Input
Amino acid sequence: MSSRGKSGEFLSNLRAIILKAFLTILLLTPVTVFMLVSYFDVMNEPDKHRPWVSWYDDPAHQIYIGWETEDESIGTVYLGEDPESLSPEKTESTACKIHHINIEGLNADTLYFYDVRIDDESIGKGQFRTAPTEYTPFSFAMTSDTQQPKITKGHHYRIAKAIENRNYTFLSIVGDHIDSGDDKQHFNNFFKTASIYADTIPFVPVIGNHDERGRMYWFTRYYPNSINKTVIPDFPNGQFYWSFNWSNVHFTNCHFTHGYSREFTDTQMDWLENDLKSAKDMPFRIVSFHCPIVGSGFYGRNENLLNIMLPLLKQYNVSAVISGHEHHWERGLFLNEIHPDNDITYLILGGGGGAFDPGLRPQPETIIATPTPCYTEVAASSNSLTFRTLTLEGNLIDTFFMGVS
Output
């Protein structure tokens, strides 16, 4: 081939390479811009959050209302049973940025309306219902791993839109509310999304491994629910566990984020056994902790939870154990040799926002597992619990019925 022919071939190849590079850049530019804009939108939320509601151990007579302001301020909660006639209930004694006002002496099974005001200016209104002291039907929702990706709104936003008008009594988030517990921007992003439903649906927080990063500093600033403040080497801010009754169901929330040996402290295990013992006459007992005992995802079987927790759950005839951690949804069953009429259902609720497990390996206990964005709702009647797991479009994934043991 002549030098002129070689030169022409070289120029032709060069033009092809330049054209491909140009087209690649043209195609990737919108994606890159979207990722950058999304990142700065997600990770640059202000330190200002509308009110949210939770409680300690007596939701029939006590709740707390939390909110956050960019500057230190003193707030007042106005409260009443008529939204058009609210009265000042309690005012903070000192100025702060992350606020909690604890309100006690409430009437059981009562719908309350509130308005949080600073200098007579409303910063957020909402409502909540206190727990009944006798059986009353109710429904609640559960999800887990709402941790947001750094470049998109994630599934938590879609869950928020799906449940905002569902009138649930509360939402239990079984760990990993956020991706990095030591990064406040992640909490800012979480509460921005949660504001879609938090004015009518209180939180029941359970701690996850991502939440406890930074030694739970930010998590416990937002959620002071835990009854444990014992300082021990592995947990300088204590462990996060607490429980409460609602109607005919006892809820126990534990601090097992990985199922590591160090999490089985004497203080938590003594509290847990006493808590389950005190709830033995409740028709239903639901125990929640982040790390699953077994699961079809990345973590598989946790020997500590299998050898220590599962026998305790069987001994005290627990109805269901709820977890997250693995990023898929799963239902399975543990046979209970001690109480043969009450095998223990387990749920993994990891469809709330994190990247899904790439492949599932069903365990012997697994009944159904799917890597689908979803949440679970539970309807409690006098003698049964009905669980329904729904896609974010409202389609049914699974349903099952649990009677009184």
Remarks:
- Confidence is low (pLDDT under 50) at residues 31-37.
- Residues 76 and 197 are 22 Å apart (CA to CA).
- The radius of gyration is 24 Å.
